[in-house]
Amino acid sequence: MSSSQPNAGTTSAEHRARERQAQRNAVVELVRVAPMAEELGELFAAAGHRLYLVGGSVRDALLGRLGTDLDFTTDALPHQVRVLLDGWAETVWDTGIQFGTLGAYRRGATVEITTFRADTYDRVTRNPDVAFGDSIEGDLVRRDFTVNAMAIELPGRSFVDLHDGMADLVDERLDTPAAPEDSFADDPLRMLRAARFVAQLGFTPAERVVRAMTGMAEQISRITAERVQAELSKLLCGRYPRRGIELLVDSGLAEHVLPELPAMKLEIDEHHQHKDVYRHSLTVLDQAIDLERAADPEGEPDLVLRLAALLHDIGKPATRRFEPGGGVSFHHHEVVGAKMTRKRLRALKFSKEIVSDVSGLVFLHLRFHGYSDGHWTDSAVRRYVTDAGHLLPRLNKLVRADCTTRNRRKAAALQRAYDDLEERIARIAAEEDLARVRPDLDGNEIMRLLGVEPGPLVGQAWRHLKELRLDQGPMNRDEAVEALLRWARDQGIEPPADR
Fold this sequence. Notes:
It comes from Saccharopolyspora cebuensis. Its cofactor is Mg(2+). Pfam families: HD, PolyA_pol, PolyA_pol_RNAbd. The structure is a single chain. With about 500 residues, the protein is α+β, with helices and mostly antiparallel strands. The chain folds into three domains: about 1-175, Beta Polymerase, domain 2, CATH 3.30.460.10; about 300-435, no CATH class; about 440-490. It has helices at about 10-45, 55-60, 80-85, 135-140, 165-170, 180-185, 190-200, 205-215, 225-235, 240-250, 255, 260-265, 275-295, 305-310, 315-320, 335-345, 350-365, 370, 380-390, 390-400, 410-430, 445-450, 455-470, 475-490, and strands spanning about 50-55, 70-75, 90-95, 100-105, 110-115, 120, 130, 150-155, 160, 175, 205, 320, 330. A seven-stranded mixed sheet has the order 3-4-5-2-1-8-9. Helix 1 (about 10-45) crosses helix 2 (about 55-60), helix 7 packs parallel to helix 9 and helix 13 (about 275-295) packs across helix 20 (about 390-400). The longest helix is centred in the first third of the chain and has 35 residues, at about 10-45.
């Protein structure tokens, strides 16, 4: 059981005041959804059953941010819950009924109601032998963390906290109701959930939780790639993803779910100075998130950008070379990194779109440095925009975030160079349709003008015209036709006279 003692530097009076404030938050939040929640509580009470708001819903109510997706637990069996909901809810679904859960929707709120659980685990898989319990005490002790093991009984709103969850919430501490070794042995996914909650809530894991994660890290292999990916995605989309990533790496869990991260902790040779690639990547992640939030303060977290920021340099360990004179090089690490990114994200069962977008950003992230080192022609700017395609806004943020030098003059010069590039992109875009850089003649016109049938030759001609478009900008139709005919004659093709 976690300690209820306040953190060092916090007096008992201050601690009690914070607990009272959290309880007031919960009351305010419940009042906001009270008509629906109270109705449901009264409905179950009238039928002789007990109903509790539970888990993350109570935690979020105490934090003052209860949403409209509410979790309840009850002593009623699933078939009894179904009877009660059928006469109350607008919609009812029972896809989780084998685990004792029914869902319902009423007046803008979604509820899930689960019969008290007293599951046992075989500790080989993470699949429980589902068993229904007979008390709220038995149900709460099997939950993952103390801050998720509190309940509020309805109606009446009596508060149930058997594992010092309130104290841990106030102290921003993440601990388990039972011994963490037992909790993680039952379900190793809880170790990833610990890192995810650290990232979402900013809490500090209890020392015993970190010790258990470190000693049991290899058991995460019992968890499917899909489940791992879901937790990693939630972690990266949290408010404090760096904290979650650091917990994964420090505990050894990352070695089993994302080994490319700890591999970036390259040994620094005293004669060959270079940045700590792992720490650099965490800083890039922080800075990318700052840019993301500055661009759209109310927007959803950008998982693609955050993955790209974290993984953009994963090709460096494989490409590190010590050069004469004490230098270090990582030639083509963006190419190697893009391949590694595709392989890892596919293994984690990310969608094809996410795999393509993240690996594309990793591949492109160095392209800008050619601009900062010299002068690009308008043709080079067009190619940059065309190659980035729909990723351009994210690439802009990633490249800016990738500047972590402590040399203020160098950092300012890089930011000025990128400001200049963005201004040129905007100017050229205003003059041309950069979003759709295509040849000035389509495939049908190419076939008609050359007198050829569909085939590889049409594609070759199309690509030639696209290259001209990138190099020279838009051409009028007569110029495009002349360029096509000139290319055709160079290929030994004589266009028909009646074109």
